[in-house]
């Protein structure tokens, strides 16, 4: 069965590139443009993994992560923070909410991100 | 019978009179002498007063805050700058403790450390205080408190020299915020360029010719250079503000990082036909921050690829195991080496060796400086050995996986 991935990101161009990549890799891709929609989509589709940005309108990625962890269905969901913030405070907050990776977008190729996701989903 | 002498005083003999005159003369001399020395003393005192006035004037009108207290910390002097800076007048301050006026807002341990230093050790205390002006406004001072001792080594008083650095701190903070914001804003379009050029470079539909692919490769290289620049800018700002790098340690294979970095540098390695020999055992696990070690190795390996002459070797290996839970990894190039006279500057910020500058005009001179800071944040160290025209070997020590 195809693995489901939810991409929560407000930059349309980046969503386009990353969804394209994951579709090519045979993932079932869902997208949301802010944390609020991301949370709804997550509950609706129960993805195998969420890739979440931080800086987004309505509800940011960290608030979404916190809300997700407060739900029964989302408390153990796999989450990777994929953001361009690299300050310690945000990284630590994300990790304390059990995001298992905190990746700075501009430091990674799409193929490397896919590899990290696959590695986590196989294990 | 007429008197014997006209100067005679009735009832006093001439002899007695002469004696009295002698006593008077000697008294007069003594008085003159005393008067002279008093006059000299007066001049001396006046000179000392002028001197004291000069010092007082200098201290009064110094631009830094100067506060003098007795050994108990009770103020007996503040200068004009202090009056202006704190809002308290001389008369309001004298007899009080700084804690009752502008101070007392720091952690108790901090004050305890200060007292320990100036009172017990009788050494100079250098630090920063967040204080409050009379109008309630907070301000930050850089202080320097010294104890003034008498000839027996007992404390006479404490002199505190304080400079208001509130504005400098604010500018520093704004600069940091700006760097943070700018780098975040820059990274988003840089990510777009990175990801879309990556997709195009795969040329899945084979509709791009070789020349077009080469151009794309150039876009990718330029893009990576910009990303590196933004990252270095952030790291420098981080180091400059005295923040420590947060090290998130985990066990991982050194070779996973090396392979990732080699892939990133593959086009340069291929173009120059470099022979990369990685002798690190595949099972070598270290206990470190993956992202930060990747940054260090990326710096060392990309430098080695840049500076090694075409067709020559790059050698990566375990150089030693220090027996204290650290392993030493080395990256050796066969490049131009570092000029002897410039060796001591290699890890300095913005430093680039003359021969490196000639060969490669791009480069910030920040990479090695940051790399060493990152290794030090792990408790390790970084160093090098180099011979001009032969090459350079960089070493760094890093914690091994805990068994």
Automatic annotation (TrEMBL), chain A:
A GO BP entry: phosphorelay signal transduction system
Q: Which PROSITE patterns match?
A: RESPONSE_REGULATORY
Origin superkingdom = Bacteria
Query: Which InterPro entries does the annotation name?
Result: Bact_response_regulator (IPR050595), CheY-like_superfamily (IPR011006), Sig_transdc_resp-reg_receiver (IPR001789)
Q: Which keywords has UniProt assigned to this entry?
A: Phosphoprotein, Two-component regulatory system
Q: Which Gene3D superfamilies match?
A: 3.40.50.2300
- By its UniProt entry, which SUPFAM superfamilies does this protein fall under? CheY-like
* Tagged with keyword Phosphoprotein: yes
Residue ranges of the Response regulatory domain?
4-120
- Residues recorded with modification 4-aspartylphosphate: 53
- What protein is this chain from? Response regulatory domain-containing protein
Q: Which organism is it from?
A: Candidatus Falkowbacteria bacterium CG1_02_41_21
